[in-house]
Amino acid sequence: MEEEDLVRNYVLEKEIIKGLPEKVVFWEETLRDGEQTPGVFFTVDEKLKIAKMLDDMGVGIMDVGIPVVSKEEFKAVKAIANEGLKATVIGAARTVISDIDSCVEAGVDETSIFVACSDLHLKYKLQKTREEVLDISVESVQYARDHGLEVSFVTEDTVRADLDYVTQLYNACTEAGARRAVLCDTVGVMTPSAMRWWIGEIKKRFKPVQLSIHCHNDLGMAVANSLAAVECGAEVPHTTVNGIGERSGNASFEELVLGLEMLYDYRTGIDIGRIYELSTMVEEITGIPLAINKPIVGYNAFSHESGIHADGVLKKTLTYEPIDCEAIGRTRKFIFGKHTGHAAVADKLNKAGLSATPEQITKIVEGIKETAEHKEKSEQVEFIKMFRQREDERRGISDREFWEIAKGAGLEPPK
Ligand code: MN
After folding, report:
1. Residue 282 CA to ligand 1 centre (angstroms)
2. Among residues 400, 258, 395, which one has the least CA distance to residue 323?
3. I need a labelling partner for 33 at 20 to 30 A (CA). Which of 8, 94, 260, 375 fits?
4. What is the pLDDT at residue 172?
5. How far does residue 180's CA lie from ligand 1's centre (Å)?
6. 194 C-alpha vs ligand 1 centroid, how far in Å?
């Protein structure tokens, strides 16, 4: 059998990928939604550094912040807009004239105008009627267009909203000049099959407009839902590096890129060789450690302990590694422990320039198992406890800092 015939890839069944768009354009949200991760903020220089790297790697669109938020935010958005990036630079705005003015002033290419649209959000959050929301949306889109900005129209909680209203709202905004419709699973409640059905309905109802999808990860389905939407022709998926963002975050950039590259055999135009470098850079800047079992960029993504797996990988990496780790700037690790087998030990000795007899290797394997199974756990428990406690202390400002600030306003902490 030929090498390429040894594995089947059912993702590529015609029935599944028939709606895949010719060109998928990544819309990066790290600098906007990503910065809304509890406790995270970026300085102007950090935002610029991340934007440049994303641009270098081939990201097509990036939402870099909401310039009306603060003076610093405005400075950062303006600096990125003036950097001469290849990517389309977007500044976000509520359906508020001063928000849009701030985007115009910052010199961005485009504004993403967002408003809530589910009846739930309208009733409790905005306390506005459907008609009022429709009117301010259309007015805002027109205002931005009149002031020289391209517009993406975004609604929060789109997937929980009434489909007839969603249709009416988007079509009115498309008519008013929005070139892109961003649909949001704001609280991560879709499933891939629901997403396929829903995008199908959207396509039947919407006037011609580019479709973009923004998925959250509350139930761990952001990437799967985004891929389902892309399969149905949504050309512009939103991502954040390391999947950061509000609550459990957004669809992760590295997972969506690698998903398309590896599973769909789809050339994204993204420089995947720098994926790991990007992830670790964002990890340091955000202070959010990559989960050990995080796909692609987590410590364990290319680590093996079990004897069967290590043996397989040493013979042919594809047996237990679906992704070529070197292609994304990583290396494979063998962890020695209770499940270690002969192959990994022989490999380590080999690499150290030593040859060992089968008896010597057996002896080492037994020694490793014995040592690993009797390891003290107190240190690991201490580490986890310290980590949890520090998490509370280092996110945002501390409780002590809060009450210090409150004191300045004449309020004492409760006794
Ligand atoms: Mn979001």
Report:
1. 18
2. 258
3. 260
4. 98
5. 17
6. 19
**Positive or negative CA dihedral for 378, 380, 385, 386?**
positive
The pLDDT assigned to 310 comes to 94
Listing DSSP states for 97-141 in one string gives HHHHHHHHHHT-SEEEEEEE-SHHIIIIII---HHHHHHHHHHHH
Tokens standing for residue 204: 């039947």
CA distance 337 to 131: 63
Q: Ligand 1 centroid vs 186 CA: distance in angstroms?
A: 6
Distance 406 CA to ligand 1 centre (A): 30
Instruction: Give residue 273 CA to ligand 1 midpoint distance, Å.
Output: 27
C-alpha 300 – ligand 1 centre gap (Å) = 28
Question: In 80-145, where do the E strands start and end?
Answer: 88-94, 110-116
Query: How many angstroms does the Cα of residue 13 sit away from the middle of ligand 1?
Result: 32
Class of domain 16-286: alpha beta
Query: Which H or E element spans position 215?
Result: strand 210-215
Structure tokens at 195: 């997403």
Tens digit of each residue's pLDDT (9 = 90 or more) over 12-33: 999 999 999 999 999 999 999 9
The residue ranges of every structural domain in the chain are 16-286, 299-373, 381-408
Distance 247 CA to ligand 1 centre (A): 9
In whole angstroms, how far apart are CA 79 and each of 109, 284, 312?
13, 22, 50
**What is the Å distance from ligand 1's center to 246 Cα?**
6
Q: 269 is written with which tokens?
A: 């135009």
**With contact defined as beta carbons under 8 Å apart, do 312 and 367 qualify?**
no
Q: What is the Å distance from ligand 1's center to 381 Cα?
A: 34
| Per-residue confidence band for 184, with pLDDT thresholds at 50, 70 and 90 | very high
What's CA 109's distance to the chain center, in Å? 22
pLDDT at res. 396:
87
Separation of CA 157 and ligand 1 centre (Å): 9
Expressed in angstroms and rounded, the spacing between residue 184 Cα and the centre of ligand 1 is 7
